[in-house]
Specification:
The structure is a single chain. By secondary structure, the protein is α+β, with helices and mostly antiparallel strands. The protein contains 19 helices and 15 strands. A 5-stranded mixed sheet has the order 1-2-5-4-3. A 3-stranded antiparallel sheet has the order 8-9-10. Strands 13-14-15 form a 3-stranded antiparallel sheet. A hairpin with a 5-residue loop joins strand 3 and strand 4. Helix 8 runs antiparallel to helix 9. It is globular and about 65 Å long.
Length: 537
């Protein structure tokens, strides 16, 4: 069906294999093609603006769709005509942010975009300066312009309550503007992208393919390894690199260990916001055991530094396997006891049940992922739908709930936690012999690759265009929170102000994951060495 849609709209197939279909679509057929793909069950994942002038192409937009039924990603490539491409946001609302990001960062403009406002760049950034164009260097800091914020129109009886940029319930600088009538939230606006770290530009301009994994792992302070894996998989996909089977199993073990400590962190935060601080302390106490296991297996509690293109850097021996299983015997029981007790507390359930509902239809249109999607009845999981690492060899269940509320998101994570125990136990038991790294490969010039993982927060997608040698021409990481945040205003509408913190927290937001674009280093340009820069991240 997918090929019929593409060929029926005069698309030129540039790549067609079991993982990816890449098609060049005429601009006058782009919106129709995207709409047909969405109606065929392919949800919008993200879009990537690329400056391809050095390739004698111009500016391009790559729209990426996840076609779960065919277990493939479909990429629609459109080339700008006089820097313009038709917007697909009128038919797929989930494309809004991706197109606005391409406007800011690459200078591609989208005809008939319903909200052509800045998304990433600050209001005082000069017009016509686009940081992801090739002539813009990673250490540039253009002079700012004077900016006068527009006056806001106030509605009678409605109060604006700012949550952020720094707030007790948000430990990263982001802003939610809540419009409140009495105690009821009648409107919500999200203004993000307060933290810009310039990772894509730094990687493309300064780093080799095997330095980028260490940078990718610093995208997130909780689930960095999944970014590391997604990037490595993207390069391995572009270059058709075979990864040793043992390395794939080791990646799986570490990915699920990361899911365990990430979910337990979320449970602790949720309990804290609901006033159950003893639950917060118990979950974080148990989480320490998983952090210790990460250090045992990798040498580090958080930034593992395990992946290189073609495999992993360290093995897991029999003594380490035995230690993991010993600790699991205790932590599994403790985790179940704490979470079961919490699930039986009426005080907690009443604060989550029926609160912050995201209907399935709206969730699919936005393209929400992970526990947020599965709690709204959307049966999606990259581990099952696009098997990577060793997931194709292992058994696990994908929990799905239909209510779409905070409680459903709690229950999805509850079940996933124990599935992670089971996956790790299977992987350790079935760990195959052999090598852990394949270094016999060459990087092709200008090949497109996609790497996708099921991060604790949902689908994590990395897109690369290789440059050949040991460089990438374009790297675009898209964190799960990027797709889930646009759904929060829907969850907040009609709810009580007191429930806003737990509703926002229920998507397990990682704001720094989402903000990754521009270097702004206070009063001066960062002229530090690469090693110093990485230490600062």
């Amino acid at each position: 069906m997918i090929l019929e849609i593409l060929k029926g709209n005069d698309a030129k197939i540039l790549r067609h294999d079991e993982k990816v279909i890449l098609a060049l679509v005429p601009n006058d057929k782009l919106r129709t093609t995207a709409e047909l793909l969405f109606k065929a069950g392919c949800y919008y994942t993200t879009g990537v603006g690329v400056d391809e002038r050095l390739l004698r192409v111009g500016f391009s937009m790559y729209h990426i769709f996840n076609c779960e039924s065919e277990k493939r990603y479909v990429i629609l490539k459109a080339v700008a005509n006089n820097s313009k491409i038709p917007s697909i946001t009128p038919v797929i609302s989930g494309a809004n942010w991706a197109e606005r990001e391409a406007m800011d960062m690459v200078g591609i403009f989208f005809d008939e975009h319903p909200e052509p406002l800045r998304l990433i760049l600050p209001d005082d950034w000069p017009e016509g300066v686009h940081p992801l164009r090739k002539e813009f260097h990673y250490n540039e800091r253009p002079p700012r312009i004077k900016f006068k914020p527009p006056k806001k129109e106030k509605k009678p009886g409605v109060m604006e309550v700012p949550v952020g940029p720094y707030h007790p319930t948000l430990h990263e600088p982001e802003v939610f503007e809540l419009h409140v009538r009495g105690e009821e939230i009648v409107g919500a606006v999200y203004r993000g992208f307060q933290i810009h770290r310039g990772m894509e530009k730094l990687a493309e301009e300064r780093m080799t393919i095997n330095q980028i994994p260490f940078l990718a792992e610093r995208i997130c302070g909780i689930c960095g390894y999944t970014h590391n894996c997604a990037y490595a998989q993207a390069v391995e996909d572009a270059a058709k690199i075979e990864v040793p089977e043992r390395a794939l199993y080791i990646r799986t073990i570490l990915l699920e260990l990361e899911r365990l400590h990430s979910h337990l962190l979320w449970f602790g935060v949720a309990f804290h916001l609901l006033g159950f601080d003893s639950g917060f302390m118990h979950t974080w106490r148990i989480r320490e055991a998983f952090m210790d296991l990460a250090e045992l297996l990798t040498g580090n509690r958080k930034t593992y530094g395990m992946n290189l293109i073609g495999g992993v850097r360290r093995d897991i021996d029999e003594e380490k396997k035995k230690k993991v299983l010993e600790i699991f015997e205790k932590t599994k029981k403790e985790t179940k006891e704490v979470l079961d007790n919490a699930a039986g507390m009426k005080e907690l359930i009443s604060r989550m049940e029926g609160v912050g509902v995201l209907p399935k239809k709206e969730g699919r249109e936005i393209g929400v992922v992970g526990p947020v999607a599965r709690a709204s009845g959307i049966d999606t999981d990259v581990r099952r739908d696009h098997p990577y690492a060793a997931y194709g060899d292992l058994e696990f269940k994908v929990p799905v709930y239909k209510d779409g509320d905070v409680l459903a998101r709690f229950l999805v994570r509850y079940e996933e936690t124990f599935e992670s125990f089971w996956i790790i136990e299977q992987a350790l038991d079935q760990l195959p012999p052999g090598d852990i790294l394949n270094e016999d490969y060459e990087l092709p010039e200008y090949a497109v690759g996609i790497g996708a993982t099921e991060a604790p927060r949902g689908e994590d997608v990395h897109f690369v265009i290789t440059e050949g040698g040991n460089k990438v021409y374009r790297w675009r990481p898209r964190a799960p929170t990027y797709n889930n945040l646009p759904a929060v205003p829907i969850m907040l509408m009609g709810e009580k102000l007191a429930d806003a913190p737990i509703i926002i927290a229920s998507i397990d937001p990682c704001f720094s994951c989402t903000d990754h674009m521009v270097i702004v280093d206070g009063e001066k340009v960062c002229r530090c060495s690469l090693d110093d820069y990485l230490r600062r991240l």
